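Weekly structure sync, notes
Attendees: PL (lead), two postdocs, one rotation student
Agenda item 3: pending single-chain targets
PL asked that the sequence for the first pending target be pasted directly into the notes so everyone works from the same version. It is reproduced below exactly as submitted, 345 residues in total.
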Amino acid sequence: MIVKRYLAASMPEAMEKIKRDLGPEAVILSTRQVPAEGWRRFFGFRKLEVTAALEEAAATRDAELDLRKEVKELRQLVVDLKRNMAAPSLQVEPQSYGSSWRELLAKMEIHGELSDQLVADLGQPGGGREKEVLIRQLSNLLADYTGLTESRVYCFVGPTGVGKTTTLAKLAAHAALYHNRKTAVITADTYRIGAVDQLRIYADILNVPLEVVMSPAEMEEAFHRHQDKDTIFVDTAGRPSGNQEQLVEMQRILAAIPDKTTFLVLSCTTKSSDMLKIADDFRVAGYNQLIFTKADETSSLGAILSVAGHTGCPVAYVTVGQNVPDDIVRAEPEKLATLMVEALA
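Predicted structure, written out during the meeting:
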């Protein structure tokens, strides 16, 4: 016996699929309602699952008799089910829509006041447009939390392993290759093995000068040597957020640079609560913009919005891979909202 399952919105649709696939001799074994796939499952949408069978020639007579008896009973169940489904409703009850949105936002790691605000604005789901509505409302909210402060000097700070150096290389490549700006790179990361060598490779490829500094005085001197540059990128060593002594040391080096934009670089794979702690600990570094890396490695990107709201600093860029100079996205509201929602799919 060949047994197959079919998903359909209605019994007639299921019967058409079964007839087309197994032929007119197929019989229905069971029917039940199951959660719909994709976005609709979050809002209580259901589909009809029908199990059908086609007898093979080798089936025994006794099995046929037993099956026919079972099929007769099941057909009556189908008649009853069709009667009950005569006017199906795929909409969730009005009183439950808030919890449906909250479940989805929690999956994205959006909680607290931001979740409350979004649920109030999203309203009752329905009509199959939940994804579109969510992107639109997230875009409206992100308008207050995105944007790049243009500057001549860009500094990068953050914990270890978040991809600061790779992100710097991507933006330096854009400045030097795509915008033809006279560019220089300065690094204060002399602690990580291979950090200077990694940047030197990028600098050689881009044909831009690289300076290595270890103190505020050396930073001032390097900065003075590159007064003619259009854009300067400054890398720093990754620091554990709990080591305030090292963070203060880094801040002293950066204080030698006037009129700068400082990015706090965070990985999207970090837990939301840990991101908030890191953001608080790194305030001593004086960052005023956010960059989120590794957005392609997680399905929960709502922490981007949470951290931006917590710090009051706008998101400038999001990286979506390791390729230099590609795989970096300017954080625009609709683009970022789409990225956050699509990550759930």
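Discussion points:
- The chain has three domains: 2-84, 94-142, 153-342.
- Residues 87-98 have pLDDT under 50 and may be disordered.
Action: rotation student to compare against the earlier draft before next sync.
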